[in-house]
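User: Could you check the structure of this?
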Amino acid sequence: MTGAGDRPLVSVLGASGYLGSVLTALLADLPVRLRAVARRPSPVPARTTADVEVRTADLTDATSLAAAVADADVVLHLSKHSGGWRDAEGNPQSEPINVGVMRGIVRVMGGRTAAGPPPVVVFAATTSQVGLPPEHPMDGSEPDRPETVYDRQKLAAERMLLAASAEGVLRGVSLRLPTVFGRSPLSAVPDQGVVSTMIRRALAGEPLTMWHDGTVLRDLVPVEDAAGAFLAAMRRPDALAGRHWLVGTGRQDPLGTVFRTVAESVAAHTGRPPVPVTSVEPPANAPVIDFLSTTIDPAPFRLASGWSARTGLRDAVDRTVTALLDEAATTGREPSVRR
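Assistant: Sure, the predicted C-alpha cells are below.
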C-alpha cells in the first residue's frame, strides 16, 4: 500500500455498524490514516495510533461518496441497507445502497489519475449469494444462483467490483461472509442475527425455539474474526484481488448445540437455570434455506491470506452475553428481543 506521506489512507464505509466499528477499532491501532464513514457518527477508541477522521455521509449521494473514497489507498466497503435481506424485496431504498454505492466507487476509481498501484477495494459480500447451499462445505467454486433480491443485489455489486479489478481500475477483493455474530463495545447498532437474538431471548427468560430438530449446521463467525479477515485482505491485496473468497471458521455447528450453548452461557452469567431449547412448527412462509445446512471450507482464503478464525464458539457466546449484560447495567434497560 502507498499513500500521501508515510501512512496509507484507509476509508471504511459503514464504520458505525457493529462489524464496521470492530474493524475501525482494529484499524485505529495501526499506523494508517483512517477515515470512518457512515450515515451516523462512527465511534472510535479514545486512544489511537492511526490519524482518525470521522465523516458522516449519505453514500448514495455521488458527491459525498466521491469525497469519501477518491483519495483512499484502501476502501473497506461494509455498507448495506439497514433492512437486510428480508427488506430488500419491497424497499426501493435497498438497491441504491446495496448496488449503487459499488457502482459509484467504481466510477470514482476509474476517474483517478494518481500514479502508483490501483487502490484496494474490499467488499463485504455474503455466502448466501450462491443460493441454496450444496450438501458439502462450500469453497467458492460453486455456481451462483441467488434466491433472494438481496442476494442478487450483493452479487451484482460483487460482479461490478471484479470487472473493475480485471480492467485494472482497482484491486478488488470480495469476502463472502456467513452469519457473523457478536457485540461491538463501541457501536449502538445491534446484531440482529440468530445467535444474538437467542442470547437476548435467554436473558429475557424465554425458551429458545427451533423450526427443526437442531441438526441443521451453520458456520458462525465471531465479529472479531470477521473484522480480522478484512485486515488480512488489506495486507495481501495482490494475492487476493480479482475474485471472491469464502470466510468461515471451518466448524460445522449444529444449531441445537449452538442454542444449548447460549442457554448454558446465560445461565452461568446470571445464576438462573438454563432456559429450555425446544422444536416448534415453522411458519408457513419460513425460507427453505433455514432448513438447509450451510458449511464452509475456509482453506482457500486461509492459504492465500494467512487469516484463520481464532475464537471458539463458547468464548464468542460468552463475550456477547457479557457485553449485553454490561450494556443493560449501563443503560438500565434489559436487552430487548426484536419481534
